[in-house]
Task: structure prediction
Amino acid sequence: MIENVAVSNKKIQKGIDKDGCFFIVVPPENHVPGYVYSIGLFQKFNHPEIICIGLEEDDLGTLVNNACELVKRGQTLCLSTNYTEFLQGVSVQFLLVDKLHYPYYLNEAIDFYDSSDYPAIQLIWPDEQGLFPWEPEYNSDYKFLQPLLDRDTDFRFFEERNQIVVTTSHVLDGKPILYISCNKDGVWQFHSEKKPKDKDARLVSLETITQIEPLVNEFYFLTLGQRAWRESEGSPWSWE
Result:
């Protein structure tokens, strides 16, 4: 059974009992790619759950369903192994998902299992040349369409680490970041004041900002014209 989020645990369990697993569909939003993942493979077959990111919804569903069918027939899907049963003429591989990514991609599964104490693997699809994201000649257009969930837990943005962003001398001197915005021209800003002065502006890399305040990673999903803010350090964030 396939379902868009959100769905009750009772309905998920009913789907698992009937079909052996249940699929959660998360549609794309702005620049954040959509994905599909399973719930129930671990409960029913002691096999990692499966997630696939970045293709059209029907293609994602087909790939994850094909993988689940192999599991239901008794096959264990192995990491870093080429599988040709999923896409005609090309191979796919699987990577182990780092549990630090679970809250961002597998929320319904966390809720269903009442913890992150279950394994998950990511089905990785290649580019038109049959190359995977970690290979040198991989099509760079797909770099942020299929984030690899076995790495980069310290940096969640869909931009390059060395992308230049705007901050202020106050942030660099240790004042907390209270205002985050992604301008309509794509420029990120991270400030401690609502209306910073031009003379205090500083240019740094996006990675530098995540090192100064790792919490800004939570707002990787902001898109053009959106912003986030909080009243003070330790206060809850609000966002558009």
User: Anything to note?
Assistant: The chain has seven helices and 13 strands.
